[in-house]
Amino acid sequence: MKQYSTPLQRVVTHILLLIGLVVSVFPFYWMFVMSTNTTSDIYRVPPVLIFGNQLLVNVSHVFQNIDFVQNFINTLIVAAVLTALTLFFCSIAGFTFAKFDFPGKNVLFVILLGTLILPSGAAAGSLIGSFEITAGLGWVNTFLPLIVPSMASAFGIFWMRQNALSIPTELIDAARIDGAGHMRLYVTVALPALRPALGFLGILTFITAWNDYLWPLIVLNNPKIYTLQVALASLNGIYNTDYSMVMAGTLLSTIPLIIIFFLGARQFIANLSAGALKF
Q: Does the pTM of the predicted model rise above 0.90?
């Protein structure tokens, strides 16, 4: 027998959701407040919680201390190219694993899943080995080490494979009867069905690439090709830091992520809804 929630339970649920919303949104609000005030205001007790009038001043300081436009373009190029390549390689590999039989398929997929438990790129040994390979290839101070090693991920292939399993086999067989090859099946059958999954993976990949800091810091030594996160980190002084300026730069770097999320939110929510229906 289906049980319905009581009015009290619904009120409690909405209150908890509202608290969660406030906790999630407050860091962004605080960042905005800090970027519109001076550093001395940030240190005040009690802290300033209202907007100031120093935003344009702080933004001008950001542009004076780093080449923000060039760093922004560098980051946009890396994130956009990496996202496009990741979506292509992960979707076509996931579709192949899900709907095609070939020798060693299961063994390869197990090996793929096994790579998920390997140490991340933040591990010291992994970073040293990766940098030696990068230097040996002559890729230091280029965008190649930021794109090539990450353009296909085990999680992305696994994610696309799980979503591709829902594509009807009969639809693929019908397309084959019409003479469709593998690439035509991928373009005409797989891509339309995988749009929500592609939206989710695209948002995740773009945000990850945009916020990447440690690896670009290691392989990029020329300020002209710095990504935005590395450039913003240079705003932190050794003895003194203008936190209002840093927060203004952080605010500017966050705006593209918000735009990307809203552009892809429809596909993102559609993917969550589809998962809920499957469950």
A: no
